[in-house]
Amino acid sequence: MKKQICWLMMISLFLTLFFYNKWYYPPLPKQLGAVSKREVLNRIQHSEESLVKIEENEDYEFYISHMNQGKAYDDLKEHMKKKGYAFHSQEGAGYFFYKDQQRFIVTSQMWTGKYVIFQIPKDKS
């Protein structure tokens, strides 16, 4: 009986950790560094913004958005327009923008069926 209770407690602990840490979600892109899946989900779920910044490094800014039947891509274009970039075209997962005759390529990656992660290069000019 004690053995069964011990197993039941271990399984309960594992399931708690499994759901708390969001282990059932796919891994985040490697460029995101130390940010956790749980942290990313909390930011997007508790934000009123449609495009949420999740991290940045010296070269890129990373944003996440709800897919909502392709609305994420419109949110990206609107975000870039506000920053002074003009949308040029899309090829696969790459979105081409121009600013001051310089080309900027924003890449997108589906993260689960609900979310898209965008990698936006920083403007070094």
TrEMBL record:
Keywords: Membrane, Transmembrane, Transmembrane helix. The chain crosses the membrane at residues 7-25. It comes from the Bacteria. The keyword Membrane applies. This is Virulence-associated protein VapD. The lineage of its organism: Bacteria, Bacillati, Bacillota, Bacilli, Bacillales.
